[in-house]
Write a structure and sequence with these properties.
single chain, 298 residues, D-Maltodextrin-Binding Protein, domain 2, two-stranded parallel sheet, 11 helices, 19% strand, elongated
């Protein structure tokens, strides 16, 4: 279903995995138990969005590597981490995970918990959206105090700003626009209805600015077609996106709920939260994850 990602137990989803998910939905919980092996109480299966798998391009180490290794050493559990995409909660519904990690704002996460398929989310960390700057930084935003000041400078100088229409980046753009006093959009504020890489390529072509998640941007820069943009100002609170874990609640016969709860408690422990705070990537000026365990009940 997946391919081995590192020397540890990390797996990436593939098109074959997506096909297998469809089979699981059709065949039901019994097939899920047989193909995934969820009855093994020594294994905790984490299904996660790719954000937390952003790794060191030289050493291939991501923020979960050390955390999982220490949890395994302390508890005797084996943690299997699988990356999933838009089907993450569908896979969890058919017994494909004991615990899921995803952005807190996902409608799918809210539905999953509301229907009783998972326990209340526990916030773990936040990742960033970045302001992406063209060569030469014509608006001088690299020295700005925060994204609000940066956007005001872009608007004042009428340097091209290309709107990235992904929901989270559009929301941040609208907030920065409102905070700047709703400046005249003129020709500098460019909304072509694009999102993701097309918006970035348009910004780079125009020598302008845009917004996108730091994780997908770093992944794009490793592709055969990187863009001439650099990330800045991704530490401000407006740029943060919370990620939470949800312990899967059903089907109960396929789940290692005890192990999933133990892993979730380990993730929000002060020692692990400090470890998240300390994680850095080479070439990135600043941290890319922020602890969020303090958002949970005692």
């Amino acid at each position: 279903m997946t391919t081995l990602r590192t020397r540890r137990h990390f797996l990436r989803a593939s098109s074959v995995a997506l096909a297998c998910t469809a089979v699981l939905v059709l065949c039901g919980a019994s097939a899920a138990q047989n193909s995934i092996g969820a009855a093994d109480r020594s294994v905790v299966r984490l299904l996660t969005v790719g954000t937390v798998l952003t790794d060191d391009p030289v050493n291939g180490v991501n923020v979960l590597d050390g955390i999982v290794a220490e949890f395994e050493a302390q508890t005797g559990y084996e943690v299997v981490v699988t990356q999933a995409g838009v089907d993450i909660f569908e896979r969890a519904r058919v017994g494909g995970a004991d615990i899921v990690m995803a952005h807190l704002g996902f409608t799918e996460l809210q539905d999953f918990v509301s229907e009783g398929a998972g326990q209340w989310p526990a916030t773990i960390l936040s990742n960033s959206v970045a302001l992406l700057v063209p060569p030469g930084d014509p608006a001088g935003v690299g020295s700005a105090a925060d994204p609000y000041e940066a956007f005001e400078a872009i608007a004042a100088l009428e340097v091209p700003f290309v709107v990235n229409n992904l929901l989270e980046t559009r929301y941040i753009t609208d907030t920065l626009y409102e905070a700047a006093g709703r400046p005249d959009e003129g020709d500098w504020f460019i909304d072509l209805g694009q999102n993701g890489p097309p918006a970035l390529r348009e910004a780079a072509r125009r020598g302008g600015y845009t917004l996108w998640g730091l994780h997908p941007f770093l992944m794009l820069q490793r592709s055969p077609q990187p863009v001439a943009l650099e990330p800045v100002l991704f530490s401000d609170s407006i740029m943060q996106q919370l990620l939470a874990t949800v312990v899967v609640g059903r089907p109960p016969g396929l789940l290692n709920r005890e192990g999933a709860n133990a892993f979730q408690q380990y993730l929000i422990s002060p020692a692990t939260q400090a470890q998240i705070r300390a994680f850095h990537l080479p070439g990135i000026d600043g941290q890319i994850f922020w602890p969020a365990g303090n958002e949970n009940a005692d």
